[in-house]
C-alpha cells in the first residue's frame, strides 16, 4: 500500500490477520509495518532485500522516523550503516536461528532439548527456509487446522505450538525478531492435560493377571524353542531361575503402579538411587521432568519387586538397562501387547502414574502429599485428583445413611 504517511494514517492503521505495510510517498523506502497483534513499526527498506527497523511507532513519532530515515539514506554509501543495511548479510531464517542460537540454549537448559529439536524439525521444517520476520500467524493457524483435520489429538497440537512459540519467544527476547507472530494464535480447546485415566478394580486385576500369564508363558516358549534347537544340534538358550522375572516389563509396570514414576524416570533409575533398607528411592534432577530431585517412599510390593529384580541381574548401573547396558528409549511394543491381553482400552503407560495418584486420593491422602510424591511443581497439576477425594468422602459419609436405616428397622 502506497500513500503519504501522517500521524492519522499511522494511528488509524488497523491490524489484519497477516502483517501488511504502508509505504510513504514522501521518503522512498520509509514504511510502517502493521502486525496482526496491532504492533506497528517504522522500517527503512533500502531495496527489495535490505531493510532495517527504525523503531516502534508507539514510541517514535512519524517526524522522528523521517529524520532517521533521511540520515540513513545519506549514510547509505558511506559505510556507516550496519552490514544488514549494506547488503552484506541476509535476513535470518527460522532454520538458521534454531541451529545457531536456539539449539545450543535448549540442549543446555532443557533435559528434553534434543527431543524438542527433533520434534521442531519434524513439524515445522516447511518454515525453516523462511526469514523469521516473514512467518505469520496465518501460516501457524493453517498448520494447526491441518493437524487437527488429520486426526492429531488437540493436546499434541498444543505441544507442537508450544515448541515453536518458545523458539519465537526467544528470538524476540534476544532481539532477533521484532514481534511474536504467534501472539494471535490460540491453543486448541480441549487440548489441556487434565485427562485422568485410572484403572478400575476389575481392570487392575486383568492387568496383573496378564502380567502373570506373560511370565508363565515365557518359560514354555523358551523350553519349546530349546527342544527344537537341540534336535538340530544347536545350543539351547538358558532358562530363567525359579522366581525370576523373564524380562523388565512386569517389574517396571508394578513399580510404576506403586510409585507413580514417569517412564523416563524409570528408564533413568539407577541402583544407587534405590535404598531398600530405608524403603525409599530418589528421582535425580537430571531424570526428572521438572529438573528437581525428589524422594519417593516404597511400599511393601515395590520393595519386593525391586529385591526380586536386583537378585537376578546387575546390582550396579541402571535398574532397567536396555541393549548393551544403554538406557531404554521405549517399551511401546510390549506395552501394547500387554494392554491387548488385559483388554484395557485407552490406557497409556503414563496412566500408571494417574492410577497411583488416584488411588492415593481415594484413600484419603492429602493433595499436598500426592503433589510431593508425583514431583509436581505446580499445585494445579495435582488438583485434577481433588474430585476423586471428594467423591470418596461422599461415599464414606453415605454409609451413615445405610446404618441409620438398619438401626430404624431394628
Please describe the structure with a list of short key phrases separated by commas or semicolons.
410 residues; hpI Integrase, Chain A; 16 helices; Double Stranded RNA Binding Domain; three-stranded antiparallel sheet; four-stranded antiparallel sheet
Structural class: alpha+beta
Strand order of the largest sheet: 1-2-3-4
Uncertain regions: pLDDT < 50 for 5+ in a row? none
What would the average pLDDT be, to the nearest integer?
84
Beta-strand percentage range = 5-15%
Explain this structure.
The protein has 410 residues and is of the alpha+beta class. It has three domains: 7-86, Double Stranded RNA Binding Domain (2-Layer Sandwich), CATH 3.30.160.390; 94-173; 201-345, hpI Integrase, Chain A. Helices cover 49% and strands 8% of the residues. It has helices at 7-12, 62-75, 83-86, 94-109, 113-124, 137-149, 154-173, 201-231, 249-259, 263-268, 300-310, 332-341, 351-362, 367-374, 379-382, 386-409; strands at 20-23, 30-34, 40-45, 51-56, 274-275, 280-283, 294-297. Helix 6 runs antiparallel to helix 7, helix 9 runs antiparallel to helix 11 (300-310) and helix 9 (249-259) crosses helix 13. It is elongated, with a radius of gyration of 30 Å. The N and C termini lie far apart (90 Å). The model has no long low-confidence stretch (mean pLDDT 84).
